Model the fold of this input.
Amino acid sequence: MNSFTFENSTRIHFGEGKIEAIADDIPKDKKVLVTYGGGSIKKNGVYDQVKEALKGHVWDEFSGIEPNPQYDTLMQAVEKVKAENFDYLLAVGGGSVVDGTKFIAAASLFEGDPWNILEKQAPVKQALPLSCILTLPATGSETNIGAVVSKGNSKLYFHAPPVRPVFAVLDPKTTLTLSPRQVANGVIDAFVHTMEQYVTFGVDAKVQDRFAEGLLLTLLEEGPKALSSPDDLNVRANIMLSATLALNGLIGSGVPQDWTTHMIGHELTGHYGIDHGRSLSIVMPAMLKVRRREKEDKILQYGERIFGITGGSVDERIDRTIGETVSFFKLMNSPTSLADENLGSEAIDVVVKSLEKHKRFKMSERQDMGPEECRKVLEAAL
Ligand code: NZQ
Ligand code: ZN
Done:
C-alpha cells in the first residue's frame, strides 16, 4: 500500500427529512446565497423545504446553473456575492450546482482573474464557506474538493481543500423525481469513479480493494432496481451512499489512480454535449480493452470478485469481464460505443486535439497515456 494522508471533514446529514438540519447547521449571522439549477428543486418540494428551514436566516438565491456549469454564468453569481456581501453559499441540486458553487466560493475571494483557477491551476488559498443539499447521487462532489467548470467546449477542473463542503444533506427522497436517464448517469458515474481507483495495478491495498468491490456490487445490484422500482427509497439510499463514498477520497487513498476515462469523457461532453455518465459508459469498456495488459491483474480480480469469472485463459476472462461491464451499462440504458451516440471516426481527431490543447500528456496509473494513446481507446470505442 502507498503512503497517504486522508481527510474528509464534511459532515453528512443522511436520511429522509434531513433538510431541516440546515436551520441549525448554518450560523445565523451568515448572509446565505442559495444556488440552484434549472428549477427541478421547485418541482419536487426541495425548494420549499429549504425556504422553511432558512426562516431564521438572511438569504437570497441565484438560479440557472446549467448541467456542466458554465464559467460565465458562475461569474454572474460571483458579481452578486461581491456586490451584496454574501458570506455563505448553499448549493441545492446535482453535481453541477455543487461544482459551480465551489467555483463561486473560490472565485469570490480570488485575487486576479478567476479563469486562472481552471486554466492555470492557480492555487485556491481561500473560499467562502459552502454546504450542499444533494439531489442527484453521482459525482461525489458533495464531500470532496474537486469541481468541473466549462467554458465553451473546454471542460476543466480544479481541486482545492477550501471548497470542501462544510456539510452535505443527503436525503434519498429528493432523488425520487430524477428521470431514468439521470438515475443511470449517476449510477454509472459512481461505478466508473470506483473503477478508476480500483482497476489499475495492485499495491496490496486489501481494504481499499474490498471497499471498492462493495461499492461496485451495490451499484450493480441497486442500479437496475432504481429503474425497475423507481419508488423504492431503500434502493435510492444505497445508491446515494455508494456515490458519495465512491469519490470522498477513501478508496483512492494509498492506491494508484487512473482518470483517463474521465479526461476523454470530459472532451466528449465538451464537444458533443454527451451527458457525463454516458460519456463514461462509452469510454470505459474501450479503456479496459486497450489497457488489458497494463491492468491485467486488477481486471482479473474485478472479473472474479464482481462477476464470478474464474475459468478460461487470461484473455478469455478479460473479454468476459469487459462483456459483463458492457451488459451492465446496457441494462442501465446507457450507450457503450461512439456509434450509440451517432458519432464516428470524425470525433476522434477532435477529441485527441482537445486533449493536446488541455495538455493531457501524462495520464493513467503509470502516467503513460497521452492524446495519441487515447486515440487507440477512441478507435476501440467506435
Ligand atoms: O438544473 P436542474 O433543474 O436542477 O435539473 C438537473 C439537471 O438538469 C437534474 N436534476 C438534479 N436533481 C434532480 C434533477 N431532476 C429531477 N429531480 C432531481 N432530484 O439533473 C440534471 C443533471 O444535473 P447535473 O448536476 O448536471 O448532474 P450530475 O450530478 O451528474 O453532475 C454532472 C457534473 O459534475 C461533474 C461533471 O463533469 C458534470 O459537470 N463532475 C464532478 C465531479 C466532482 N466534483 O468531483 C466528479 C465527476 O466525475 C464529474 O466530472
Ligand atoms: Zn465522474
